[in-house]
Amino acid sequence: MSIVTKGIGLAKKVKHRFDAQIKARTPVYVSPVRRIERVKTDKRVVAMTFDDGPSRMPPNPAGEHRKGLTMDLADTLESFGARGTFDVVGSTAGNYPDEAGKEGSAAWGGKKYDHYPDFGHDGEGGAQVCKEEIDRLIAGGHEITSHTYAHVLYGPKNVVYASRTYLGDIDRAVADLQKLHDLLKERHGYTIRLSRPPHYVDKIAPGLTSYDALALMGYQYMAASFDGAGWLPLASYEAEVEATWRPLERALTEDPESMCGQIIFQKDGFNMARRTPIADGLAIQLKLLADRGYKVVTVSELMALSPFADLGEGDDAFEAARSLAEKGLCPAFRDNTVRPDKLMTRGELAETVFGWPAAKRRVERIQKKRGPWPTGLPAAHPYGAAVDMAMEKGIFKAQAGFDPDAPVTEADLISLTKALTGDAPALPATMRRGDVLKMLAGMMR
């Protein structure tokens, strides 16, 4: 393993530890966009995602492979009866002028931008030029998700990609997402519903993040819970291939149920050494899973089985939460938990009901640099716009100094029911989130 690889690996570990510390201190809010890392299920189902394709370039080393990488991966998946989720880009051909970075470094594909499948070979990858590959994936039952059109960072990432150009503007971020969305819809008749931001960079501008951009698109945030590796350069190709399946084997040996509901991260492209260990590692991964009775499905199929991280089939409030999500309400927090035993707050209630339409109102207020909401909540407050909409509907009494963290009251629920249905409500037994969600689900039948 090179010094560069060790340095990148160490930087990743430090960042993950730092992110975990930040996450532990950061409040989590109900949100229309949920970060889908894994879902709760006792069934042996798992999803595999493949970033940065499609690619017409052949695997490296080619070995027995005779097709472009994307076609090769699709064939391998289907030989095991599996379906993958391909997180595609549109084209990186516009990401010039630029210079190639040092092989083995994070900038291997470009100093200012990413270039897929490789620097100077942008015309051999991306959905824009790979029509046949996209058609092949759709015909094979695989899922297409958005890794953005040009794979340009939303905002700065100072540790690893300090020299990278970034968008820094939500209108530009949404336009980039829309460009890929329209390409798939108009040329292939396919509707994208999930997206993974480039390099997981979420901050776009003060007060705005990738979650806001995805909310405007009507997308969910597709993350992952298990690293399929293959993206880091190691001492040899054989070592890189082993890195794709050895951790999976270890996890399944220690606990055969450990992969239930997980989302695996992979690459449909070269690693930092311009090799493709996934081409030979994928079949080993799939056999390990198949031997233990696992079914590999798309992320959307996984979410249809169980959409949430903390609730599964048979759990209290699961059906209510799932029904509300299907009807366009927001029953869960940004981390994809429902937390049915927690007391429902007034801000959570407003966001649950108005979260999707409120997202646009919130973005517009921040963009126009307007002051606090009439309630006194800051313009960027996660519940500010939803509370404003609830007050317009007469659900909450218009007042300054509104406390979104105060528990929901019976009066709030009576006002909500009358505003939405005109009927007298059947109040829940408690103000636990699970009970309130079941009441809402009953109202929405």
Give an overview of the whole structure:
- The protein is an alpha/beta fold and 445 residues long.
- It folds into 2 domains: 274 residues, Glycoside hydrolase/deacetylase (TIM Barrel, Alpha-Beta Barrel), CATH 3.20.20.370; 133 residues, no CATH class.
- The protein is 38% helix and 8% strand.
- The strands form 3 sheets. Strands 2, 3, 4, 9, 10 and 11 form a 6-stranded parallel sheet that branches.
- It is globular, with a radius of gyration of 23 Å.
- The N terminus is likely disordered.
Topology:
Layout: H1 3-25, E1 35-36, E2 45-51, H2 69-79, E3 85-88, H3 131-139, E4 143-146, H4 170-188, E5 194-195, E6 203-205, E7 208-209, H5 210-217, E8 220-222, E9 226-227, H6 237-254, E10 263-267, H7 278-291, E11 295-297, H8 299-305, H9 318-326, H10 346-367, H11 384-392, H12 410-420, H13 433-443
Parallel strand pairs: 1-8, 2-3, 2-10, 2-11, 3-4, 5-8, 9-10
Antiparallel strand pairs: 6-7
Helix pairs in contact: 2-7, 4-5, 6-7, 9-13, 10-11
| Structural class computed from helices and strand pairing | alpha/beta
- Report the CATH architecture of the largest domain: Alpha-Beta Barrel
Secondary structure: helix percent: 25-40%
Number of helices: 13
Total number of β-strand segments?
11
Overall pLDDT, averaged? Answer: 93
Report how far apart the termini are: 58 Å
Beta-strand portion reads 5-15%
- Main sheet, how many strands, which sense, barrel? 6 strands, parallel
Low-confidence stretches: 1-8
